[in-house]
């Protein structure tokens, strides 16, 4: 602890211990605790307490009967735990009987303060920190803490109850770590008393008829098997397995969700050999006992396991597929298997679950689709993967939601009535359909996929979120569509689809809903980026009104849409897909686009479109876009001038990005990604270097960068510093440009920069000569600046000293700065 | 019994990070998804792990409702939807949907600007999140699904702020968000109809305060600004992009006009245009006066307030500058503060709350020597003023709203525990309504008595009408009929299904003991009903599927036995067949 903090600490402890000084802002206490944790992690807690006796005084003081704030009491309990985590400090606090007085029956536990959840939470967290060594275990046993923790598992506060469960796991694990003499016995009967007590409690809870108790026990076990992988966990599982399995005999199975979590954590635990513990049998039983909704999560978990018996995997996959098999069966045009599961008869339980209630049906279908979506990209997904029937199921569901399917059976019609217009299922099915594009499918099904997607994109009933997902799924399917043999162009079917799609996109770009226009533009940008160079796509796009509409959206009232239109137009223009606007007032569309984008950059009131313009310009410069290469210097100078005046720091930062691209084009790319990497100096030829620097001076890149170096927004300053360091490294080896520092121009530039640094940036630098710039660069402590900029801009206000000062300063003036809203 | 459960993940006995989970008739709704600006790590967001445990978020939650655009109510939304993984519907009013991204973007920029802020959402995430929003109109009943509906009411406070009624069947909860019961310069007062919800969840920021007149605070503010400008000083007002900044602008604009003042007023970063745009767009959300005068002059088209340029800060002479951010923790407001702090003629007015760890907090706590980077010390000589213009209902206003809505119970959030305690007692004593104030993580469970709609046949209704009394909603009437309940109603009422059994007595001439008669019946049925499961139970009774047959002695005739036969209505066919079979008597051969 630094001396300044040490000096402030006694006064702060006195304030904390004074019940007349309520501490309104409890974030301060949290931050104070964070600071103590950092100190104790780095050094001796005992020394800290000895050097700062006010801390122990505070802990003693909170025990006195008084009307102390529950937050301060909670803080003190947690702080004590942090100190007592080190065994010598624990002994020190024990000598003063402080620990039993704080954590035992005589402490807050028995008092009125205990009614505050924050105190109970502090008590648990204090013990959690403290329980790090064998002495702590004895202490816990002596003060009867474990029984209190048992009862806190059922606390009215979620936070307290959850923390109590986790503390039990921690204590169990600590006690099983055992004394230093050797590892604990693998016989449960020989386990330490504390461990036996906890296991006994878990057993009792598992036998209970009350679901909350069973849930608590299952959660404790789940955490245990997830975090502890020592051999004793296997003994624990063998002992408790029958009790867990017995839960399956109850109808309905209690705490099903927690049970699934436990079984999966056991199955994942590397400490357990699953085959010897009857785990696979239990998993199989559980799959068949749980309701389809509950079993879905377990099935997914099983299928994610790395090694597990094939039969169990097949059973799990069947559970996962069952709801979709039911859908396929209900909507099948004729008799026969749906193709998704071998058994033709759909599981009656699942069918029962699907049909009678809309909520249950929608819930189960959405869950199934999400699970399958997660499973598909995994390497351990079932093989063979039933791609075709799954595609069929997704398409069918989407059709049912639109009411466009015409199921023949009663069940099918019932399903159709339930799903008609259901946005939740539409969203889930479109996401799933998009994911299915990773695999191919039979051509007739792919045709159906495109048809249903088009149907959704066309439908006036599709909500904006559904449309967005439909666009995303369409793009993914287009990506996976077959190419014409021998070239990368889209095949004829896809092109045909594209011709149907573009009028739909056109319509969507005119939607009254900004979300839809924006999704349409994002889709267009993606497509152009991918296929902008391909003849078929170009032809179809140019034959449509899409480019012209996109250009109009540059003036959209919604800034998000303007930004997306800027990006889309930038992309279209890069690919030469901008249509010349009709009328004599537009002599050339490309030129007018550049002008229009510059206009947006200098006048748009929102940051998003201006930032989008900067991104487009940077990309154009990088790609040597036709309009840029015409007069690159004029382009760069114009953009930097506008960007430099922008009030949005992200626009200024992107200005630096553009400056960097220009600089690299002039001087060559940086030699190493790491600016500190040792690279042999390669002498740059003086002639081209001089010309390049002159070019940088002409576009006023240096003035822009120097201004940015003293920007009030830190990322801008940091980026500028990096740029100038790169420039200095590039020019370091050029001897022909070495100039004495004492030139009068250099002095005046340095003086101007000093004023800029002080915040007065009114005076411009004027025309600069390369030699002057280099001399100024060499004289600047850019490395030092870079180091300073690497810290957060509020690191001083966030420092511990500042925290202590703030806490002390607020004493007595409460009400002046009261928490209300922001 | 059906119940309503409420668990605050944030705003339970504190302010900041508002996030309240409500479970009503099996539907789960999240009310607000705010952030706490006092933290710069994950603690700034509510701890969502408590809901992710319940499986997929999108499956668990039916919807998220955002009351207004303040960050302590919506700041965690992009994190929740784009990083934690919620993909379901989000509801808010149209103005909130329009303004929310500006505030979120503003905050994101500050967070990134400061650096060192990890795990934060991006600009694209804010946009993607806002695209999931379903915007609602005031008093429009929105059907989230077949059962869940929501309705927004005007809340005052800030542009677009709304209170929401959440209703499933006959059960309902009203959540106020932040609200104001007195109109201010540009907004009206909160209003709700007598909707009699089961529960009213109300904010309680000023639970113990009877606030002084806002006029006084405004007068004080204008006087201070005027004095500073008159003595040639510069006035800095750090604000967040939208909200009370606009109210202060109207105030200054009117005052400047009236007093014919010449000192320039500046507002940073095109915010005046934005404010102008949104207030024009949502003029119906402002108060009557603004709406009325709008035809002649738009109050938000300011004559005296100009856009700020960074270079203006160094101009000589007096000026007033509104600059972001509001807590002096980064960017432009902090830069201007540093420039102007050393001059005692200047003034900074903090119009809102500042969290610890900001320069705003420091100067409000009276610190005048601030350590800056590189161990430099900034001496604050400028005048520092704090004037809260936040528009919350005070104790009187909260009581007024409770009186308006007439809830069965009240639950307090968004306030300090001690203040809540005071208000809780007041509500319970004066309004005789039970009141709760759970801490974060604590669940309040309220049993409800649902009213379930019942279908009545036309015939029955006509019969009742024939008695001459016209139906009156306020006077309950007794109807006689048979009530048939389906599964869902039983579940909702927490009742078990009533088992209906038919019974019949069959007299048999048989002088033997009852047990022997029963055995004869068993043997007879066993031989006749080969496809059915016929059992002779240890207590002597005989069962065939659900049909139960017991033999008893006749009270008057010892030579006769009575067979008591009962069956469920599902087995009615078999039951009738059996009785007719038994009525024919038992075969003699078996005797």
From TrEMBL, chain A:
Entries under InterPro entries matching the protein: ARM-like, ARM-type_fold, BRAT1
Keyword Cytoplasm attached: yes
Keywords tagged on the record: Cytoplasm
GO cellular component: cytoplasm; nucleus
Subcellular location: Cytoplasm
GO biological process assignments: cell population proliferation; DNA damage response
Highest taxon of source: Eukaryota
Protein name: BRCA1-associated ATM activator 1 isoform X2
Protein species of origin: Mustela putorius furo
Lineage: Eukaryota, Metazoa, Chordata, Craniata, Vertebrata
Gene label: BRAT1
TrEMBL record, chain B:
Cofactor(s), by name: Zn(2+)
Main subcellular location: cytoplasm
Keyword Hydrolase: yes
Single GO term (MF): RNA endonuclease activity
Keywords: Cytoplasm, Hydrolase, Metal-binding, Nucleus, Zinc
Residue ranges of domain Beta-Casp in the record: 245-363
UniProt keyword Acetylation present: no
Cellular compartments annotated: Cytoplasm; Nucleus
GO cellular component terms, A-Z: cytoplasm; integrator complex
Biological process annotations from GO: RNA polymerase II transcription initiation surveillance; snRNA processing
Occurrences of domain Metallo-beta-lactamase (ranges): 16-210
Entry superkingdom: Eukaryota
SUPFAM superfamilies given in the database record: Metallo-hydrolase/oxidoreductase
Subunit-level organization: Component of the Integrator complex, composed of core subunits INTS1, INTS2, INTS3, INTS4, INTS5, INTS6, INTS7, INTS8, INTS9/RC74, INTS10, INTS11/CPSF3L, INTS12, INTS13, INTS14 and INTS15. The core complex associates with protein phosphatase 2A subunits PPP2CA and PPP2R1A, to form the Integrator-PP2A (INTAC) complex. INTS11 is part of the RNA endonuclease subcomplex, composed of INTS4, INTS9, INTS11 and inositol hexakisphosphate (InsP6). Interacts with WDR73; interaction is required for the assembly of the RNA endonuclease subcomplex in the cytoplasm.
Family from the record: Belongs to the metallo-beta-lactamase superfamily. RNA-metabolizing metallo-beta-lactamase-like family. INTS11 subfamily.
Protein name per the record: Integrator complex subunit 11
Record organism: Mustela putorius furo
């Amino acid at each position: 602890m630094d001396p300044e903090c040490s000096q402030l600490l006694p006064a702060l402890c006195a304030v904390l211990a004074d019940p007349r000084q309520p501490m309104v802002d409890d974030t301060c206490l949290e931050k104070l605790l964070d600071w103590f944790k950092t100190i104790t992690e780095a050094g001796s807690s005992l020394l800290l307490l000895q050097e700062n006796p006010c801390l122990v005084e505070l802990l003693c003081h909170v025990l006195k009967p008084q009307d102390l704030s529950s937050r301060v009491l909670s803080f003190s309990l947690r702080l004590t735990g942090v100190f007592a985590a080190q065994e010598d400090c624990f002994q020190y606090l024990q000598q003063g009987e402080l620990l039993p007085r704080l954590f035992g029956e005589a402490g807050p536990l028995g008092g009125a303060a205990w009614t505050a959840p924050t105190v109970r939470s502090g008590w648990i967290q204090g013990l959690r920190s403290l329980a790090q060594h064998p002495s702590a275990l004895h202490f816990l046993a002596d003060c009867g803490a474990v029984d209190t923790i048992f009862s806190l598992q059922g606390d009215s506060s979620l936070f307290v109850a959850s923390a109590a469960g986790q503390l039990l796991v921690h204590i169990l694990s600590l006690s099983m770590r055992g004394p230093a003499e050797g590892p604990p016995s693998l016989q449960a009967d020989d386990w330490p008393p504390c461990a036996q007590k906890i296991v006994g409690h878990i057993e009792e809870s598992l036998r209970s008829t009350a679901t909350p108790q069973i849930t608590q026990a299952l959660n404790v076990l789940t955490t245990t098997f997830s975090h502890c992988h020592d051999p004793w966990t296997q003994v624990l599982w063998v002992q408790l397995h029958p009790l867990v399995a017995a839960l399956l005999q109850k109808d309905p199975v209690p705490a099903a969700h927690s049970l699934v979590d436990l079984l999966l954590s056991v199955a994942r635990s590397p400490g357990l050999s699953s085959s010897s513990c009857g785990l696979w049998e239990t998993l199989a039983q559980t799959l068949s006992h749980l309701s389809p909704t509950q079993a879905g999560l377990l099935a997914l978990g099983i299928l994610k396991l790395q090694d597990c018996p094939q039969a169990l995997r097949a059973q799990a996959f069947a559970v996962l597929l069952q709801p979709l098999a039911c859908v396929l069966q209900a909507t099948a045009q004729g008799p026969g298997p749906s193709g998704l599961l071998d058994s033709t008869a759909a599981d009656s339980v699942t069918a029962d679950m699907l049909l009678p209630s809309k909520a249950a049906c929608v819930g189960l279908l959405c869950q199934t689709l999400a699970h399958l979506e997660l499973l598909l990209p995994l390497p351990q997904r079932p093989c063979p993967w039933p791609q075709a029937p799954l595609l069929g199921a997704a398409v069918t569901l989407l059709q049912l939601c639109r009411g466009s399917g015409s199921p023949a059976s009663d069940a099918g019609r019932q399903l159709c009535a339930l799903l008609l217009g259901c946005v939740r299922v539409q969203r889930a099915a479109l996401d799933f359909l998009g994911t299915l594009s990773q695999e191919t499918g039979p051509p007739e099904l792919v045709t159906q996929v495109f048809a249903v997607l088009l149907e959704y994109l066309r439908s006036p009933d599709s909500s904006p979120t559904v449309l967005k997902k439909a666009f995303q799924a369409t793009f993914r399917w287009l990506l996976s569509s077959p190419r014409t043999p021998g070239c990368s162009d889209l095949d004829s079917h896809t092109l045909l689809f594209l011709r149907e799609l573009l009028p739909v996109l056109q319509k969507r770009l005119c939607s009254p809903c900004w979300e839809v226009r924006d999704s349409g533009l994002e889709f267009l940008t993606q497509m152009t980026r991918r296929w902008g160079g391909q003849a078929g796509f170009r032809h179809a796009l140019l034959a449509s009104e899409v480019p012209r509409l996109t250009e109009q959206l540059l003036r959209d009232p919604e800034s998000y849409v303007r930004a997306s239109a800027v990006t889309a137009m930038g992309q279209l223009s890069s690919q030469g897909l901008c249509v010349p606007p009709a009328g004599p007032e537009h002599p050339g569309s490309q030129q007018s686009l550049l002008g229009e984008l510059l206009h947006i950059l200098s006048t748009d009131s929102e940051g998003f479109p201006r930032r989008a313009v900067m991104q487009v310009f940077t990309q154009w410069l990088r790609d040597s876009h036709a309009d840029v290469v015409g007069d690159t210097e004029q382009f760069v100078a114009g953009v930097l001038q506008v960007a430099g005046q922008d009030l949005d720091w992200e626009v200024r930062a992107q200005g630096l990005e553009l400056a960097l691209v220009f600089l690299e084009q002039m001087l060559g790319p940086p030699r190493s990604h790491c600016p500190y990497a040792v690279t042999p100096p390669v002498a740059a030829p003086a002639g081209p270097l001089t010309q390049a620097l002159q070019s940088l001076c002409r576009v006023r890149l240096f003035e822009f960068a120097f201004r940015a170096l003293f920007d009030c927004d830190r990322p801008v300053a940091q980026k500028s510093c990096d740029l100038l360091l790169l420039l200095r490294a590039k020019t370091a080896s050029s001897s022909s440009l070495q100039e004495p520092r004492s030139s009068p121009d250099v002095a005046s530039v340095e003086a101007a920069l000093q004023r800029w640094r002080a915040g007065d940036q009114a005076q411009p630098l004027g025309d600069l000569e390369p030699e002057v710039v280099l001399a100024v660069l060499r004289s600047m402590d850019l490395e030092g600046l870079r180091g300073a900029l690497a810290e957060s801009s509020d690191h001083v206000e966030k420092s511990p000293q500042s925290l202590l000062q703030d806490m002390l300063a607020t004493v007595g003036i409460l009400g002046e700065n009261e928490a209300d809203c922001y | 019994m059906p119940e309503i459960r409420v668990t605050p993940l944030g705003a339970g006995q504190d302010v900041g990070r508002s996030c309240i989970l409500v479970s009503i008739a099996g539907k789960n709704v999240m009310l607000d998804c705010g952030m706490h600006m006092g933290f710069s790590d994950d603690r700034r967001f509510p701890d969502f792990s408590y809901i992710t445990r319940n499986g997929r978020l999108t499956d668990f939650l039916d919807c998220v409702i955002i009351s207004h655009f303040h960050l302590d109510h919506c700041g965690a939304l992009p994190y929740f939807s784009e990083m934690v993984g919620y993909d379901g519907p989000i509801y808010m009013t149209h103005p909130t949907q329009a303004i929310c991204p500006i505030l979120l973007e503003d905050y994101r920029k500050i967070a990134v600007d400061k650096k060192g802020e990890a795990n934060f959402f991006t600009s694209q995430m804010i946009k993607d999140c806002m695209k999931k929003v379903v915007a609602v109109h005031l008093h429009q009943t929105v059907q989230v699904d077949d059962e869940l509906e929501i309705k927004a009411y005007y809340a005052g406070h800030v542009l677009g702020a709304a209170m929401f009624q959440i209703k499933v069947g006959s059960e309902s909860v009203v959540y106020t968000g932040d609200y104001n019961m007195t109109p201010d310069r540009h907004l009206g007062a909160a209003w709700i109809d007598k909707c009699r919800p089961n529960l009213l969840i109300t904010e309680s920021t000023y639970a113990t305060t009877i606030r002084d007149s806002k006029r006084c605070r405004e007068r004080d503010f204008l006087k201070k600004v005027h004095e500073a400008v008159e003595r040639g000083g510069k006035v800095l007002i750090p604000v967040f992009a939208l909200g009370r900044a606009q109210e202060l602008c109207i105030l200054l604009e009117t005052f400047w006009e009236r007093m014919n003042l010449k000192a320039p007023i500046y507002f940073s970063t095109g915010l005046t245009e934005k404010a102008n745009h949104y207030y024009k767009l949502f003029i119906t959300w402002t108060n009557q006066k603004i709406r009325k005068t709008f035809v002649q002059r738009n109050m938000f088209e300011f004559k005296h307030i100009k856009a700020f340029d960074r270079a203006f800060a160094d101009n000589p002479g007096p000026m007033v500058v509104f600059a972001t951010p509001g807590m002096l923790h980064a960017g432009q407001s902090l830069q201007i503060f540093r420039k102007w702090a050393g001059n005692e003629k200047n003034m900074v007015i903090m119009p809102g709350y500042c969290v610890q760890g900001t320069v705003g907090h420091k100067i409000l706590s009276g610190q005048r020597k601030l350590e800056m980077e590189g161990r430099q010390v900034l001496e604050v000589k400028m005048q520092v003023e704090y004037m809260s213009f936040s528009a919350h209902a005070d104790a009187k206003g909260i009581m007024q709203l409770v009186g308006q809505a007439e809830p069965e119970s009240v639950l307090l959030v968004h306030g300090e525990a001690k203040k809540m305690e005071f208000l809780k007692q007041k509500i319970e004593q004066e309004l005789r309504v039970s009141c709760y104030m759970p801490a974060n993580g604590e669940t309040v469970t309220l049993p409800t008595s649902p009213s379930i709609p019942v279908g009545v046949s036309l015939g029955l209704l006509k019969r009742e009408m024939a008695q001459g009394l016209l139906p009156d909603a306020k006077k309950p009437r007794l109807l006689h009929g048979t009530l048939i309940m389906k599964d869902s109603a039983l579940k909702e009422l927490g009742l078990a299904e009533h088992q209906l059994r038919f019974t019949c007595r069959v007299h048999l001439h048989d002088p033997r003991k009852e047990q022997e008669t029963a055995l004869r019946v068993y043997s007879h049925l066993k031989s006749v009903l080969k496809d059915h499961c016929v059992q002779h139970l240890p207590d002597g009774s005989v069962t065939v599927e659900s049909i139960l047959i017991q033999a008893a002695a006749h009270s008057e005739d010892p030579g006769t036995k009575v067979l008591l036969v009962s069956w469920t209505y599902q087995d009615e066919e078999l039951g009738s067949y059996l009785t007719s079979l038994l009525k024919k008597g038992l075969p003699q051969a078996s005797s």
